[in-house]
Records
---
Amino acid sequence: MKRNGKVQTFGFLNVDKPSGIVSSVVVNKCKWLSGVPCGHMGTLDPLASGVLPIGVGNATRLFDYFLAKEKEYIAEFTFGVSSDTLDSTGALVYGGDVPTEQDIQGVLPQFFGDIMQVPPKYSAKNVNGKRGYDLARAGVEFELPAKQVRIFGIEMLGKAESENTYRLKIRCGGGTYIRSLARDIAAALGTNAVMSALRRVKSGYFEAGESIPFSVLEKDPDIKELESYIIPTERVLSFERIDLTPKAYERVFQGVPTTVDYPAGLYKIYKEEVFYGIAEVVDGRVKVKTKLC
């Protein structure tokens, strides 16, 4: 069943996903409430909570511009245990030493910068046309290739309430698996660990302190209230605005690359003061790269 009416404002919803549900549940709720296509930027595991940016309407066309944005997590790693999923939701096997806080801090610098990381088998990674988690659940043996990810920093926050568990703050680029990081940090210490809790507190522009609890959306706000939560698309992009002569605007909007006196790069472009999309300047010529209206 669809709700009557559609939102007129396109942009982003900064939703605080609770632990225990898949990200698609949040997306489907936003789609039903808004009456327009929606999509999320960066899946959160069912175990994880926190910032889940949802593109509403044509804002989904901009996802590629957010792939390299920095993300920040608060994670809990439990040592002396392993699992097939690399987190505490899998089949747990106990065994392995539990390091001290100082031991863990000693190996963390090994993971700073650009590192190679093997994704979890229980992930959405594509393997010959099938999802890794489907193959893993079916007991199929397969290997995933390592990929390069970027870790900006890892800070030890101390012991957590759970036994043998430590809390860490992790700043990383897109595509990083925190579950894999738990496995690899433990391996550097000659032991095992699983991710036992995870909260994403920042994803580029979007921060947890400004997010909407999913429970608010579960109360089925009307269209007007929902629109009040939508962040306009142009606000979440840090690109500068490009200003052209009327003749240059006319040529650009007709799809004709036009000479400009701007450095190479990406810019916001407006049509009659309405945010039109993203323009790109290459070799002194500008053209529209992504159109929103």
---
Amino acid sequence: MEIQRQPVNSSDIAGIGYDAATETLEIEFKATGVYRYFSVSKNIYEEFARTPSPGKYFLQHIKGKYAWEKIGRD
């Protein structure tokens, strides 16, 4: 699966992408690489994409709430 990521304005996160068909959120962290989060609603992705503070949004709404896997560094 190839998910296109868009850059975000964050000190920790380089970019995010989403596949609506599989409800998969992909996040590229500047320090640790690329991770995929599963069963993430489109609404959560859209809020994440619009938030002025992606790092804070990630900590409050995504981290620890979804199954994930690390897929490497890009």
---
Amino acid sequence: MPSTRDIRRRIRSVKNTAQITKAMQMVASSKMRKAQLAALAGRPYAQQMNSMLADATAKAGDFTHPLMESRSGHRTAVILVSTDKGLCGALNSNLFREAGKLATESTVFVCAGKKGAQFITRTRRKLVAEFTYKDAPLFSEARALSRFVRELFLKGEVDRVDVLFTDFVSTLVQKPEWRTLLPVGVIKGVQAGVGPGESPAVLQNSGMEFQFEPTAQQVLGELLPHALNFEIYQILLEAKASEHSSRMVAMKNATDNAKQLIKDLTLEYNKLRQANITKELLEITTAQMALG
């Protein structure tokens, strides 16, 4: 049975831990708000770009582009967007569970985030590149990542490129999501809150008509790489908003659990202290009775 000194030591230790988790919760809360606003602000632009791409595709006729080439091979590159730090609940675990389902012999990984790279190395999967991105992701970071996977695809080293990231739904809900990046194929409404089951016609019937100069084919050829750059940029924003939201919730739960543990330890300490006092009183009374 622990002594009162041991319990006091545990209470002091838990209080110190609660102070740390509370501070981390406040920091994550501040970063979370900025990241959420950035992710939400990028969605209308992504939706408008997707609508323009759909309209250009409809007017381009038999337009072909190397990024739209569909291949029969099974070599896949997966962009795994994780975090650089831990203490964010089950965010990374859910991602890694999905990544672990892929065949190792036909899949290579491009990681954005240190935790993802560590997982790929630990599980002896093939890691071809690792990228980092800041708390406020930069478009240049997304462009570098997009350029790398485009080169893999255009050189024929892989037949398709998928992205596995955490989609931001709300502060309490973040879910792993797969998205096919290459080949582009038919422009589908999968960005900026547009349901993945919606057809391109949903985007084309937006009530707006675009005029393309010089031609829809040339505009589409120039716009496709930029669209891929921005899609990855938006994915990084969504992943960062998910990370800070999950970390804030995890630190809040840790703080609440620490406070409850302090209450339980304090109650145990008071009970033990009261038992010791009662025992000492009984010993004094017994001694007095024995003396006469």
